[in-house]
Description:
This protein is of the alpha+beta class. The protein has one domain: Immunoglobulin-like. About 15% of the residues lie in helices and about 30% in strands. Strands 1, 3, 4, 5, 6, 11 and 12 form a 7-stranded mixed β-sheet that branches. Strands 2-16-13-7-8-9-10 form a 7-stranded mixed β-sheet, with no helix packed on it. A two-stranded antiparallel sheet has the order 14-15. The longest helix is centred in the first third of the chain and has 10 residues. The chain starts with 10 loop residues before the first helix and ends in an 8-residue tail after the last strand.
Amino acid sequence: MKALQMRTLSKGFKKVFASRLPALSFILFLSIFFLVGCGLFEVDSKWRDRDIAIDGKSGDWLNAMLYFEEERISLGLLNDENFMYICMIVDDPFIRGQIVRQGFELWFNPKGGKKKIFGIRFPIGMLEAEMPPEEMKTRRVPMKPSRDELDPERLNQVLRRQMDELEILGPGKDESMRMPVEKAKGIEVKIEIASGMIVYELKVPLHLSDEFPFAIGAKAGDLIGVRLETPKMDSGQMRRRMGGGMGMPGGGRGGMDGGMGGMRMPGGGMRPQMPKPLKIRAKVQLASAENQE
Length: 293
């Protein structure tokens, strides 16, 4: 497990983020904890001491963000008696591209274990949202983002077309239910791009009830498991979803759009180099009202 560690904000880090004002408040990053390495983290959720608007903006999260240095992701965790609030800010351009094309999944385990019990997929991903099966058979879909697709305005346009739906995942391995966002009672979620950074915000109920049938299944003060992931898609999955042959003319398996690199295979084909998917797993101690001063 990885321990939480405070670090001084470097001059280089200040310079990078100061250049992106005013879309993201620089003071937000002056108060970030730094998390080093990867694997399983132990972190605390803080008691919600402010109003949180789920609007895809990070201004409500001052003094409440953790920074995962290796993944270049900032994460905020707050809760009250009834809801958990999550903010994620993504700086890495390839992870941004993965989220837009493949979607983003946030999983919870109410007992703190590693098993995926309850998940939310939002956005659902460009491949799911924009391509009917008949189009998947002929359209060329690069797995590495092209320069055009890394453009913030282009990404925002693609994301806006994914805003209306989400998927509820679990508890079974292959169980999922897609629905309009407004039908997911108690869940509020929004994603925006500001100065090239993705800002993701989520409000999710803690308690399962008739009013909130989609919930973590925990209470304030519990220790829960949280996983943040971009869905992994290997080349075999891509070929199956595209009707074979990676969508290339004649069903070939050669080089791909977007500057995709690869490894030479026997027979002259190329094996796509898969970008590393985002995967963060944490044990999160929810705050309780009794521990607040």
